[in-house]
């Protein structure tokens, strides 16, 4: 008896509603036919309640008596009332006296004296003998032992519930064990309502509200755990008493199911090149999602060219660039609908998937040539409501700040340039000293314009609040977020002229099981965004910082007067006034995105068949408001006798006028209908898809809406999880082409072979090689994007302007006026075609703790849509006609390695990704060139601007010249024989750039210019890689990630005035400090100096396009670092939390590169780094879940 009591006392808390029901049902055996239970009584503190109910029969449960004393509903009511009245102590003493009484009469006596409630089958008591009992001050166990003695009954006490049951008299039963445990989800939250059944039987229980369960089973039994929205699991008991289970979400589960175009597939049956990450891996303290996945996913090449709040989105390509015309951006879909990549918060993302080859993208037809990005948002789960909050505050500083010369150095270099040109110095030592000492900063300023306009740091904040939960019939995910970022600009206290963005986001995803076979999803999302910036564009401000000399004017005179140079040209205007006193511009954007999705199972026709449809409506509105002003400005020409500044007025004050405003809007409708089929037939697995969709986009100012429609098909067959064949096709119709050319057919086929599933695969290798799979695909996709030119096949006419027709006798173009054909008719235009081929291998080692995937691709795009380059303007064309002309190949590889390993309390993870893509122009519309190195055909896609470069070897040194001295003692230089000098300047001198005479004709001219010089690369990297690692120990974790690029070139000469001092003269250029520190001089005759000898006159030799200004743009960036702590659940439960973590993270912490002067990722687009800087970010964050 003692052992039984100890076993009962292990139950610390009263059973919850769901558990009471299951415990009762384990004891009750329902009759085989419908019966009415009699008057069933529940006794709680002398209060009697009853209800008459009818329950359908079940052959799984034994017959019960009409006098059974409870119903399920009354049990629930009794549970609640028991909480109100308390429970009877099992150790409390009582007295029971009865003479020749039935067991039922004794039970009634016990119930009358106590709070105990008995449950039993009256049939089990019918043949029991009458008893006499006389027990004083006994506890409930002593009374029960006496009651069941010499009977066929047994009892169990659970708090104040007593269960009587009949001992089994059948064949000897197998030994049983009591198994307890807790069922949770991936986040550690308990799952109520999980069904646990014994395999091969109908016996089962359901977890309570805390996810707990208890069940008696055979030591050799197998338990099956199932729950709506979760992957079912089977676990062998193996004699254990405790089995805790973590159920993994089955809906679009990344580890088991792969998101693909218009659906999902088992990972084992995917034949295409696909890469995915979970949304949590894309969290970063940045404003745009596009800035987060560089190096995270194999196949993506991404660069961020600006850090300006609201305009800092990265450019990205999937497997590089395969066209020299427009339309190289991937298609982005959010929950299956074409939408903007940056219109969703990272906290709202469940998975982020990249489709790369034809087997994955052919279903998107004309929109699949550049790859596809699929973003799946989070959805609700059948669970208790979870509320999670994440808050962050970030501290930002520029990753690199430019260095400019002070006034003393600037004017000294100007003197040096004059002397090198044979002219006398302009500024005396006395004047230079005034600038050096800064004794009078009003008249002799030395302004660091970067420091004057740009703050050293700024901040951003982020707050997100998510609600997730539901039942087996309705589930929800609701998220709200705020993101705010301030720029680096110094501001006017009277109004906000800073670069700034504030964004409010809302998302609601609701899933409703209308019936057992009908699912409805209702999704809504929206954003309200405000962006602020100076009235002048931020790019103009940074241009002026880089171009105005430090000596010209101060930002503000000491008496508060605004300075302005008398010439007032763009490069001489006061940047401080330009930034803080010219006004501001505000942009307001609001959009809503809504969709309704209906899915109907058609198993009554055939199992695995379902139909689905979707309609979405998006509305995007933008409003622009700007106000401008100008202060009175002056130029200080000197001081009077009293030391006051003598001003000349330059501009009158212009006060704020009426605001200028504009607005535009876009409305989009997307319709989709599909039939899906998925079914297993023994070793055979078959899927099918037929789908049609239509897109409608109406712009504010366009009377005619944009429309596109597609028809899609897919079929897959997998045998025995070993062999898979897949066929896809997309048929797309586009308005861009004439009738007869509007529809394109884009098919693809894929094959996969799971070698490790073969019966002959060596068994002894499976411990090491747990997965070995090869894939191959070939197919065709298309493209109709041309950069916004609509109805390209149609001619357009105008009556203004003129066009060229022939050449006059003087050799000039002969202009004609009249009716003009602006765009020439091109009725034969058709789709760009991209043929894609892919071979991949997937390898898992040591139970997939190491997962490796590598793909090799070979793509070729033909029929490229472009305007003909070789049509002469004198033939009468106002615009060159459109035509399908050009072929570009794109080859490479991408791959990833992932490691996950647990050693005791340590969890170790590591990952690496690599993408390499090199293109080649196979056909290009160009005039015949004199030499092959001048041709684009056969070369990579490289953007040199308007002029091809010369190959720079080094700087000339005095050893290259025969040197003599004139009558004034000045050196005279004559190039030695065999060396080629400049044709652009009057003479070549030491310190000038020495170029390669490519054709060997003894002259330097345009015939020596090279389209794709050896050793140099395009401005978009050909190689992107990333690697990182993580460590977790008892909740304390550490993660680090590095990202890099290779085979990329930065052209410093892309902005002439930045790295060409005095290009615009004395008062319209600034000088970089790198030129001060490392230029060719008589004292520094370094042939590889950063800058050639200084000259004031325009030097065609040193400033022409050449590889001297090309820099290796490769870099390795310490992209992300995070360390934090996940609090233990035992501690959190005491304060009402289920999860919590604190963390500190760093982003863009350091970069290793050879550019040094500015962040190399800005590249050529920054005009030598003259662009809003990228940011180094430190973040503190808190995340809690209730």
Automatic annotation (TrEMBL):
Ranges annotated as spanning the membrane: 70-89
Keywords: Membrane, Receptor, Transmembrane, Transmembrane helix
Domain TonB-dependent receptor plug residue range list: 268-372
Residues spanning the signal sequence: none
UniProt cross-references to Gene3D superfamilies, sorted A to Z: Carboxypeptidase-like, regulatory domain, TonB-dependent receptor, plug domain
Membrane among keywords: yes
Tree of life domain: Bacteria
InterPro entries associated with the record: CarboxyPept-like_regulatory (IPR008969), Plug_dom (IPR012910), Plug_dom_sf (IPR037066), TonB-dep_OMP_SusC/RagA (IPR023996), TonB-dep_OMP_SusC/RagA_CS (IPR023997)
Keyword Disulfide bond annotated: no
A Pfam cross-reference name: Plug
NCBIfam families in the record: OMP_RagA_SusC, SusC_RagA_signa
This protein's name: TonB-dependent receptor SusC
Taxonomic source organism: Petrimonas mucosa
């Amino acid at each position: 008896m003692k052992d039984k009591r100890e076993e009962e006392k292990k139950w610390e808390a009263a059973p919850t509603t769901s558990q009471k029901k299951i415990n009762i049902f384990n004891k009750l055996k329902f009759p085989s036919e419908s019966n009415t239970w009699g008057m069933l009584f529940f006794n709680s503190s002398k209060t009697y309640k009853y209800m008459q109910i009818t329950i359908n029969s079940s052959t799984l449960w034994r017959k019960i008596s009409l006098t059974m004393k409870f119903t399920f509903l009354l049990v629930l009511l009794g549970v609640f009332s028991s909480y109100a009245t308390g429970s009877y102590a099992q150790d409390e003493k009582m007295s029971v006296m009865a003479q020749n009484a039935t067991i039922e009469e004794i039970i009634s006596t016990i119930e009358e004296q106590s709070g105990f409630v008995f449950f039993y089958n009256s049939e089990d008591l019918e043949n029991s003998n009458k008893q006499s009992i006389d027990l004083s001050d006994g506890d409930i166990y002593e009374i029960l032992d006496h009651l069941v003695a010499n009977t066929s009954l047994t009892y169990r006490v659970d708090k104040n519930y007593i269960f009587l049951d009949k001992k089994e008299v059948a064949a000897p039963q197998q030994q049983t064990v009591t198994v307890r445990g807790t069922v949770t989800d991936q986040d550690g939250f308990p799952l109520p309502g999980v069904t646990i059944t014994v395999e091969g039987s109908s016996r089962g229980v359901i977890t309570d509200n805390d996810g707990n369960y208890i069940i008696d089973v055979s030591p050799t039994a197998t338990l099956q755990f199932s729950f709506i929205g979760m992957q079912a699991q089977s676990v062998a008991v193996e004699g254990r008493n405790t089995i805790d289970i973590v159920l993994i979400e089955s809906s679009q589960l990344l580890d088991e199911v792969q998101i693909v175009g218009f659906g999902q597939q088992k990972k084992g049956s995917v034949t295409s090149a696909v890469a995915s990450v979970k949304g949590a891996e894309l969290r970063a303290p940045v404003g745009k999602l596009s800035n987060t996945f560089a190096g995270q996913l194999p196949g993506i090449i991404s660069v961020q060219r600006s850090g300006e709040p609201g305009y800092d989105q990265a450019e990205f390509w999937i497997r590089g660039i395969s066209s020299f015309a427009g339309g190289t951006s991937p298609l982005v879909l959010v929950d299956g609908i074409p939408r903007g990549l940056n219109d969703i918060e990272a906290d709202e993302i469940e998975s982020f998937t990249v489709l790369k080859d034809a087997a994955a993208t052919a279903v998107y037809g004309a929109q699949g040539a550049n790859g596809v990005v699929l973003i799946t948002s989070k959805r609700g789960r059948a669970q208790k409501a979870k509320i999670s909050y994440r808050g962050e505050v970030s501290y930002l500083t520029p990753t690199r700040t430019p260095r400019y010369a002070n006034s003393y150095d600037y004017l000294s270099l100007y003197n040096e340039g004059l002397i090198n040109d044979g002219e006398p110095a302009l500024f005396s030592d006395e004047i230079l000293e005034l600038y050096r000492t800064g004794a009078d900063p009003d008249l002799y300023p030395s302004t660091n314009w970067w420091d004057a306009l740009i703050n050293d740091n700024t901040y951003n904040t982020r707050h997100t609040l998510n609600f997730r939960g539901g039942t087996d019939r309705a589930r929800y995910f609701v998220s709200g977020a705020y993101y705010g970022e301030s720029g680096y600009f110094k501001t006017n206290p009277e109004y906000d002229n800073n670069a700034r963005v504030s964004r409010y986001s809302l998302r609601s995803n609701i899933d409703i099981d209308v019936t057992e076979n009908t699912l409805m999803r209702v999704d809504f999302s929206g954003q309200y965004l405000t962006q602020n910036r100076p009235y002048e564009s931020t790019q103009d401000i940074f241009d002026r910082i880089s171009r105005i000399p430090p000596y010209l004017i101060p930002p503000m005179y000491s008496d508060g007067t605004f300075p302005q140079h008398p010439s007032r040209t763009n490069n001489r205007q006061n940047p401080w006034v330009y930034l803080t006193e010219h006004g501001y511009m505000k942009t307001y954007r609001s959009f809503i995105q809504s969709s309704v999705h209906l899915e109907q199972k058609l198993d009554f026709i055939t199992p695995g068949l379902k139909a689905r449809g979707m309609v979405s409506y998006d509305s995007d509105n933008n409003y622009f408001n700007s106000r401008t002003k100008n202060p009175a400005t002056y130029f200080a020409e000197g001081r009077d006798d009293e030391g006051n500044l003598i001003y000349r007025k330059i501009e009158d004050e212009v006060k704020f006028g009426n605001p200028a405003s504009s607005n535009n809007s876009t409305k989009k409708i997307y319709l989709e209908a599909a039939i899906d089929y998925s079914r297993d037939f023994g070793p055979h697995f078959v899927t099918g898809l037929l789908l049609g969709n239509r897109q409608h986009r109406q712009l504010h100012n366009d009377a005619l809406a944009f429309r596109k429609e597609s028809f899609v098909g897919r079929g897959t067959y997998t045998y025995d999880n070993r062999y898979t064949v897949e066929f896809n096709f997309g048929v797309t119709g586009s308005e861009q082409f004439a009738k007869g050319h509007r529809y394109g057919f884009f098919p693809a086929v894929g094959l996969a072979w799971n070698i490790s599933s073969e019966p002959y695969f060596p068994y002894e290798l499976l411990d090491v090689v747990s997965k070995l799979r090869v894939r191959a695909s070939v197919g065709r996709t298309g493209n109709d994007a041309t950069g916004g030119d609509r109805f390209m096949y149609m001619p357009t006419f105008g009556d203004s302007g003129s066009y060229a027709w022939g050449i006059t006798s003087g050799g000039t173009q002969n202009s004609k006026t009249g009716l003009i054909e602006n765009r020439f008719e091109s009725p034969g235009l058709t789709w760009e075609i991209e043929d894609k081929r892919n071979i991949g291998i997937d390898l898992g080692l040591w139970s997939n703790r190491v997962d490796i995937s590598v793909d090799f691709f070979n793509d070729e795009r033909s029929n490229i849509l472009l305007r003909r380059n070789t049509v002469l303007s004198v033939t009468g064309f106002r615009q060159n006609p459109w035509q399908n002309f050009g072929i570009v190949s794109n080859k490479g590889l991408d791959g990833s390695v992932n490691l996950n390993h647990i050693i005791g309390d340590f969890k170790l993870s590591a990952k690496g990704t690599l993408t390499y893509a090199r293109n080649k122009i196979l056909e290009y519309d160009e005039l015949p060139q004199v030499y092959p190195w001048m041709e684009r055909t056969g070369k990579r896609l490289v953007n040199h601007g308007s002029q091809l470069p010369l190959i720079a070897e080094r700087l000339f040194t005095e050893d290259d010249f025969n040197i003599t001295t004139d009558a004034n003692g000045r050196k005279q230089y004559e190039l030695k024989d065999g060396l080629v000098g400049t044709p652009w300047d009057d003479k070549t001198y030491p310190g000038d750039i020495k170029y390669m005479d490519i054709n060997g004709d003894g002259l330097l001219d345009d015939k020596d210019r090279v389209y794709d010089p050896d050793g140099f690369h395009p401005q978009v990297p050909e190689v992107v890689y990333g690697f990182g690692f993580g460590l977790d120990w008892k909740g304390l974790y550490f993660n680090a990630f590095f990202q890099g690029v290779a085979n990329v070139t930065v052209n410093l000469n892309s902005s002439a005035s930045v790295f060409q001092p005095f290009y615009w003269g004395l008062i319209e250029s600034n000088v970089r400090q790198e030129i001060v520190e490392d230029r060719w001089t008589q004292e520094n005759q370094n042939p590889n100096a950063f800058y050639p000898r200084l000259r004031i006159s325009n030097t065609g030799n040193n400033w022409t396009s050449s590889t001297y200004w090309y820099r290796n743009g490769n870099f390795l960036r310490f992209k992300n670092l995070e360390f934090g702590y996940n609090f233990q659940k035992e501690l959190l439960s005491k304060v009402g939390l289920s999860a919590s973590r604190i963390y500190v993270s760093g982003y863009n912490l350091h970069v290793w590169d050879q550019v040094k002067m500015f962040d190399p990722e800005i590249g050529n687009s920054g005009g030598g780094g003259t662009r809003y800087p990228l940011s180094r970010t430190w973040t503190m964050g808190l995340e809690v879940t209730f």
